[in-house]
């Protein structure tokens, strides 16, 4: 998180002390760095300069309208997985001609929205979906640009809950089934097959699974002698949640993709989510209470699993950074937990952590992706606010949900 660092003993977001932000904004809140998002996007673009891909930000990673707008202004398109994300991307000013729509369960209403807005591609994930889109297209007397999402049966070597490219996963169409569909493509006369797409998983830290996937794609393109305009290679690029993780070598991967592009003569689409926003955000929370358990001390935060699901959902481990640092250490083990009435509402266990007091603030690191977008009203808690910093300027980009509006249904 290069844009978040200590200046003396105080933790800063860009040029502002987080302590100062907490004095004016009630915790918990998400805090993003605008310059980090810009850097991430430009880094990604630079890494694949020769490939010149269409970069469709996976809106599920963070669908805050201001963040979509910021990425849109930088030139990003969007990968969306619902009608809501599609409408948000368009509202954020993203060109529909750079929007791709993935997902195994698109409804008729969502397909109609995609057609109405003339998006770049609907990535079909089953034969039934192809039949439905074809039927809608016929009714509307239109030819619809589509891609087929393949399940390449490649192990992305990531956490099992974020693996999407193995045969046992629900995503995409098997190679065998796609052969059948393609041989009988006249059954889908109202669809124009413009692309093949893949997305094998998330938080991927090796270029090997990507390499295998390119091999699978090349084989099927050659076997079927299929002429396509685009190949959508999905997202999945991992980030450093801790110092142990080694990121994939973009230079190597870019070379492989460039070679693949030359062989297939297709334009390349990427769908990065986490890589563009993961390290751009923190979740700032207050120590509400401290209580002694049998073998450890519980640090009870005012943020819960409803605000930040990743530890409960994926056993994700995030660093937790004191907003004001001191050398005073806790002797035993502490565990950060939240207020939600679930045992899984916890954020991490640490030994020899610095001494904390009730009322102190901490920042859960690398919370910019799949943080806010996964949050919920569980336990009838309002969605928390989101702020963004640009140098010294702070802007609220989502107000905390009004509790009294929330209780009406
Ligand atoms: C189809 C698709 N594309 C892109 C992504 C983005 O993945 P990541 O955030 O790991 O880049 C996802 C995430 O699940 C996805 O399902």
Q: What's the overall geometry?
A: elongated
Bound ions, cofactors and other small molecules, one mention each: pyridoxal-5'-phosphate
What amount of the residues lies in strands?
25-35%
CATH architecture of the largest domain, by name, is Alpha-Beta Barrel
| Unreliably modeled segments | none
Largest sheet: 9 strands, mixed
CATH superfamily of the largest domain: Alanine racemase
Determine the structural class based on helices, strands and strand pairing: alpha/beta
Number of strands: 21
What is the CATH class name of the largest domain? Alpha Beta
How would you describe the overall organization of this protein?
- It is elongated and about 70 Å long.
- The strands form 3 sheets. Strands 4, 14, 15, 16, 17, 18, 19, 20 and 21 form a 9-stranded mixed sheet that branches. Strands 5-6-7-8-9-11-12-13 form an 8-stranded parallel beta barrel, surrounded by 4 helices. The chain has a 3-stranded antiparallel sheet with strand order 1-2-3.
- The protein is an alpha/beta fold and 409 residues long.
- 29% of the residues lie in helices and 25% in strands.
- The longest helix has 17 residues, at 208-224.
- The chain folds into 2 domains: 4-32 and 278-406, Lyase, Ornithine Decarboxylase, Chain A, domain 1 (Beta Barrel), CATH 2.40.37; 34-277, Alanine racemase (TIM Barrel).
- Bound molecules: pyridoxal-5'-phosphate.
- Pyridoxal-5'-phosphate binds at residues 58, 60-61, 79, 102, 199, 202, 234-237, 271-275, 369.
């Amino acid at each position: 998180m290069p844009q978040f660092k200590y200046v003396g003993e105080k933790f800063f977001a860009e040029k502002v002390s987080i302590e100062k932000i907490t004095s004016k904004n009630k915790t918990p809140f998400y805090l993003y760095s605008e310059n980090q998002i810009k850097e991430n996007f430009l880094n990604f673009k630079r890494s694949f300069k020769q490939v010149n891909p269409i970069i469709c930000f996976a809106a599920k990673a963070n669908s805050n309208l201001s963040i979509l707008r910021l990425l849109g202004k930088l030139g990003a398109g969007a990968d969306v997985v619902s009608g809501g994300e599609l409408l948000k991307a368009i509202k954020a000013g993203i060109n529909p001609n750079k929007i791709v729509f993935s997902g195994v369960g698109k409804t008729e209403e969502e397909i109609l929205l995609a057609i109405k807005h003339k998006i770049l591609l609907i990535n079909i994930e089953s034969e039934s979906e192809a039949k439905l889109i074809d039927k809608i297209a016929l009714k509307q007397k239109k030819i619809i640009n589509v891609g087929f999402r393949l399940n390449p049966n490649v192990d992305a070597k990531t956490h099992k809950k974020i693996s999407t490219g193995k045969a046992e996963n629900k995503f995409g169409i098997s190679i065998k089934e796609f052969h059948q569909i393609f041989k009988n493509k006249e059954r889908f006369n109202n669809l124009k097959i413009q692309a093949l797409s893949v997305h094998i998983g998330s938080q991927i830290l090796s270029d090997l699974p990507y390499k295998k996937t390119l091999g699978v794609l090349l084989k099927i393109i050659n076997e079927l002698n299929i002429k396509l305009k685009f190949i959508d290679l999905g997202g999945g690029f991992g980030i450093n949640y801790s110092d142990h993780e080694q990121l994939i070598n973009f230079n190597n991967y870019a070379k492989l993709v460039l070679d693949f592009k030359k062989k297939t003569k297709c334009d390349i689409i990427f769908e990065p989510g986490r890589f563009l926003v993961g390290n751009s955000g923190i979740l700032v929370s207050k120590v509400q209470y401290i209580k002694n358990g049998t073998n450890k001390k519980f640090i009870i935060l005012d943020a819960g699993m409803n605000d930040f699901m990743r530890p409960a959902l994926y056993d994700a481990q995030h660093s937790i950074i004191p907003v004001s640092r001191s050398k005073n250490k806790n002797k035993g083990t502490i565990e950060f937990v939240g207020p939600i009435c679930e045992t899984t509402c916890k954020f991490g266990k640490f030994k020899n952590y610095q001494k904390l007091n009730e009322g102190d603030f901490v920042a859960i690191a690398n919370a910019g992706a799949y943080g806010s977008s996964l949050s919920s009203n569980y336990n009838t808690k309002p969605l928390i606010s989101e702020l963004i910093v640009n140098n010294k300027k702070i802007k609220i980009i989502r107000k905390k949900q009004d509790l009294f509006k929330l209780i009406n249904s």
